[in-house]
Amino acid sequence: MILTVTLNTALDITYRVQGFRPHASHRVTEVTERPGGKGLNVARVLAALGHEVTVTGFAGGTTGDVVSERLAGVPGVSDALVPVAGATRRTVAVVDERTGDTTQLNEPGPAVAPAEWTAFQEAYADLLTGAAAVALCGSLPPGVPVGAYAGLVRTARSAGVPVLLDTSGEPLRRGLAARPDLIKPNADELAELTGTHEPQRAAQAARRRGARSVVASLGAEGLLAVTPEGRWRAAPPAHVRGNPTGAGDSAVAGLLSGLVEHLPWPQTLARAVALSAATVLAPVAGEFDRAAYEELLGRVVAVTAEAGAA
User: Fold this and answer.
1) How confident is the model over 154-177, as pLDDT tens digits?
2) pLDDT tens column, 28-69
3) What is the dihedral sign for C-alpha 283, 285, 291, 293?
4) Active-site residues: which are they?
5) 156 vs 57, 59, 66, 73, 196, CA distance in Å?
6) Contact partners, residue 88, CB within 8 Å, separation at least 6
7) Cβ distance 162 to 133 under 8 Å?
8) How far apart are alpha carbons 297 and 186 in whole angstroms?
């Protein structure tokens, strides 16, 4: 079983319109709703790849009920969300069908009380018992300590469970000091963390600060992996246009699946890139175009990256 943690879960709502214009009214052509938040997106992709996944985090209010109801219909995904008094947030993506551009609106999460945070930590420690790996994903809702991920990383390490951390800002900075097995920032997050804008130097700096391995998302240029075993780059064979929401989460799913399947890094990186690109072609986050994924997987090749400055 793979465990994913989404402390700031959401109900993802996607509107599709025929040409998005600011300051104008729009007729929505299609509406979709899915359980959301980074770790839930990761879980759905992992399940589609054939892995058993348990999701945890917080859920509350009417929106939280909808999230749990929708999760019950996802094969391979078990719901271990911890209840809170506040209402789970919603996110709204507006997709322009003419251009493929997406406008994202993210609500704040519910305020988490100290007793609710304590209950979550106890549930998390219990869930680690049966986990092959854990992903800690996304932002922190109000009330959760900024050093929360650092504590969750340490708990996983004490349980002997490999841990991937995918967050940003101060939660990433503090979590890094707890020595996660893998982090997956994008280029901007990595630069903010290290003060270095050259991706490979920044990844090396992040490793010196505590991460065993770093996989950086470089947008259209794909992924860069800097690990104890070597350095690799992989990118889609051509530019892919569509809805990029959730593409990074699919990359995390590819990395996690490769980790638990003990795949070599070049194969894992190629899978992550193919999944990410195939997600851009899917209508909503947490899904990927299966045919595109299988076609891309045979074309994405991870190549050795030249050593950067230490």
Assistant:
1) 999 999 999 999 999 999 999 999
2) 999 988 898 999 999 999 999 999 999 999 999 999 999 999
3) positive
4) 249
5) 15, 22, 29, 28, 29
6) 9, 10, 11, 58, 59, 60, 61, 63, 64, 67, 109, 110
7) yes
8) 22
